[in-house]
Structure formats: structure tokens, C-alpha cells
Automatic annotation (TrEMBL):
InterPro entries: AraC_XylS_family_regulators, HTH_AraC, HTH_AraC-typ_CS. Residues 217-320 form the HTH araC/xylS-type domain. This is AraC family transcriptional regulator, ethanolamine operon transcriptional activator. It comes from Paraglaciecola arctica BSs20135. GO terms for molecular function: DNA-binding transcription factor activity; sequence-specific DNA binding. The gene is eutR. Keywords: DNA-binding, Transcription, Transcription regulation. The lineage of its organism: Bacteria, Pseudomonadati, Pseudomonadota, Gammaproteobacteria, Alteromonadales.
Amino acid sequence: MLKQSTLFRKLPLFDACEQQSAQNWLPLEITQLSAGPYQGQLREIQHHDVSVFFEQQNCMVHKRGIMVDPFCTVSFARSTNAQVRLSEYDSQDNSLFFIPSESEVDVQVAGDVETVYFRFNQAKFLERARAISPQYWATVPDSALIFESPLRKSLEVFSHHLYSHPLFQSDAEVTNDNQGLCSFIMDRLLLALDESSVNHDVRQDLIARYRAKERVNQALDYIHGVLENEGCPSIVDICVEMNISQRNLQYSFKKILGFTPNVYLYHLRLNRARAQLIKADNNNITVTQVAMYWQFWHLGRFSNDYLRLFGELPSVTLSRVLT
């Protein structure tokens, strides 16, 4: 008998950075974009080469990172008319998203939308995918794909049946026979994709969104690089770096993220400040130090904006962490 680890987790989430650190297999930054005290939940089952995640939060978030080797994911939003964006694509009722290994993860999710995603070992996933559709999966996709699947609703039922399965309620001693369950889960997703149509939409609006997304990603890469070096770029800095007009930059951010670059950058800095306060491990750190580090020079405005976004003052966050 082979001892295998079956993991079942149900985690309450009270902050975007908690949600981020809960998925330590994926280098990801999650930024809270809508106001209010953060509440969410991550449910997870892991068995052999398959993991299923159910993720929900009450605030709009932007998730950005890279899908690490050797994993790929298939995901969907579990609600009608869910406001979910993956790269330049907006989710529809029957949308399935495929994110291959080593590709960009760029997802924006509205509040109170549950996303479900299946994580697979990509090599094993593609081996089975090529068996049923050798022509389509002959080459490995190098970026995220969106499928329109008539089986999306049945996958929702299937995923929640999995979550209630007795095997996934606690650590269990299983035999090699249970590898068949992993193949069954993977095959269910593969068949749903095989019955789907890939979105090859070449409308002018989608082309414009793709170009805007590329500009936003270039700007965000520059912003993150400056922030990591204890600086804070201005809009002029970004325009100079990218050789782009302010009007074009504003258009791109509004088109993709729904925010101006100034507003998004301000939210990003507030999220970074909150993450630093939450990770404080000694009494020597102060709210003023954190505010100054992230270049909030007006402490009163910083505290008010922090309260508006997160539902508590920065001093309350820090005292809660240190007590």
C-alpha cells in the first residue's frame, strides 16, 4: 500500500496578501481595488497530480504573476455574467480559461464572484490532450486561451461534487488505484475543452484591448521595478520610460483595468503598505515609517485613504498584528 498525501483546506481570508500567500506555489501579487473590509475564502483539494481551488472574495482584485513550471490551470467563474477579465478577454457565461506553464497570469475579478480552477501537471495534461485532439495540442500554447464551452455548467456541478467527496475531507491512505481518480478529473476537463471552441475573435475592439493590455503590462513592470528600488514613479516618468503619450496611457489603463494609472498606482501603494504592516514582527516599526517608505507624504490623507479602502486605520492594523 502506497502512502499518499491528500490535502483538504478551507481558509478564511481577511486580506489580499493573505490570499496571495495561501497559494505559495504561484508567484502572484493580489491588489485590492474596491473599498471595504476584506472577506474571502479559499477551499482547496489536492490529490496526486490534481488540485482544485475554489476562491472567493468580496472585493474587486487584480492578480498578476507567472504560471510556474510544471503547472497549467483550467478555470471558470462560478456566476452568471461574472465580471472576470483574463488578459484581454472578458469572461462570458460559458467561458473556460486555460493558462499554460510559464505564461502570464493577469486576472481581474469583481467582488463576490467565485472562481474555480483546476491545476494539473502540464506534461501529463498535454499527453492526454494530444490523445483526443492531436492536431490542436501538437504545440504548447505560449499564452492564456479562452474557450466557449457548452459543458461549463456541468463542470460547476462536477467540481462541487468533488469537493463533497469523502476522499477529500482529510488526509487519507490511498493505493495506486486512486491514480485513476486523478485521470478521471483530468479527462473530464479535457473533454469539456474538446467540446469547446477557442475564441479566435479578431474584432477591432479585441485587437485594441490586446494592444492596451501590452501597454499596461509594460507600465506595470516599470512601476514594480521602481517601487522595489524604494522609488515611486510619476505619470510623466512612465510616459518617458515607455515613450507614450499621457492620453494613450490613460486610455490603456481605463480599457483594461477600469482605472486611471494614477488611481491604480495609488491603490497598489496602499496595498503594499498594508502588506508591510501585516507582516510587522516587532514594536520598532511605525505607521509613519511605512507611510514614508511608500512615499505617502501626507499622513492624514494616507490614514483616511487607507481607512476608506481597507475599512480600518493603519494604526489599527499594526496594533492588531503586534498584540
